[in-house]
Design goal:
The chain is of the alpha/beta class. It is built from ten helices and 13 strands. The strands form four sheets. The protein has a five-stranded parallel β-sheet, with helices on both faces. It has a three-stranded antiparallel β-sheet with strand order 7-6-8, covered by helices on one side. Helix 4 links the parallel strand 4 and strand 5 (101-102). The longest helix is centred in the middle third of the chain and has 16 residues, at 175-190.
Length: 285
């Protein structure tokens, strides 16, 4: 497959990185920006700029707007970056329906892994250890029950990532306000206010292992990275390999994420899929 023109459906630092990589490959790029993003640096790092209707995150969550941008500028592929529409199966389907190559997992994969509760359930079926957590998109009443059982918890966005829609709660009194705030953040960032809870793990390390699958059943890991230094649940920087793991624990963690039958992972990993598996998710900065 040859890509001649790529729409970068994102903004900021990730859009700049994608534009740079595409340029090195000789691929023409089209950037997008909301009405209030016209002076952002990423708008000057692409070959052509398409202005979206609307302001803020909403403009970058507009699936019809993104598809129209790609069609109007002659793109044959779309790179979603991270956040926004990157884990939205509806966007992947819309790209396929428009004859555009979606650079990332297919819609079926995103249905399973873009939804964090579905991803947790898949990991459990494959024997990958996960922290205690709610198994469905959680209501406030269900959150209250979970918190009473575990004492403290982390609220997380089902469709989320990047630290958005996350709050630590350690008391029943603090839960309603934190829950509402997480819903608002998740809706603004990801277009969905669905939340779930995990039991709070204190003083943990945040270690991720990237895995890749090619759609044939072949799955491999790319080693681990240490992401424990955070602010507001967002990574400040990553270190690879992790300086805190023993050799034995490194082997154990990396083996765990690819130890399930390849056919099982193949069902969840489309061609060109790449996903980080959090071997030990830090719930504290």
């Amino acid at each position: 497959m040859t890509i001649a023109c790529l729409l970068i459906a994102n903004r900021g630092e990730i859009a700049i990185r994608i534009a740079r990589a595409a340029a090195e490959l000789g691929i023409r790029t089209v950037g997008v920006c909301s009405e209030d993003d016209g002076s952002s640096l990423h708008t000057r790092r692409v070959d052509l700029l398409h202005r979206l209707l609307g302001t803020g995150a909403a403009a970058y969550l507009d699936i019809p707007g993104m598809i129209a941008a790609a069609r109007e500028t002659g793109c044959d592929a779309v790179h979603p970056g991270y956040g926004f529409l990157s884990e939205n199966p509806a966007f992947a389907r819309a790209c396929a329906g428009a004859g555009l190559t979606f650079v990332g997992p297919d819609a079926a994969t995103l249905d399973r892994l873009g939804d964090k509760t579905e991803a947790r359930a898949l990991a459990q079926r494959l024997g990958v250890p996960v922290a205690a957590g709610t198994t469905v998109r959680t209501t406030l009443a269900q959150a209250e029950t979970f918190l009473a059982e575990h004492g403290s918890a982390m609220i997380k966005a089902v469709a989320g990532g990047g630290g958005r829609g996350m709050r630590v709660v350690a008391s029943a009194a603090a839960l309603p306000a934190a829950f509402a705030r997480c819903q608002a953040e998740a809706l603004a960032a990801f277009g969905s206010d669905a939340l779930y809870l995990e039991a709070l793990i204190r003083n943990a390390r945040h270690i991720e292992v990237q895995i890749i699958g090619d759609g044939t059943g072949a799955v491999a890991h790319l080693g681990e990275r240490e992401c424990s230094l955070q602010r507001r649940h967002q990574k400040i920087f990553e270190i690879a390999p992790s300086p805190t793991l023993s050799a034995a624990l490194r082997v154990r963690i990396c083996a765990t994420v690819v130890s399930a039958p390849s056919s099982s992972w193949s069902a969840a990993m489309s061609p060109c899929s790449s996903r980080p598996i959090r071997a030990c998710r830090s719930n504290t900065p």
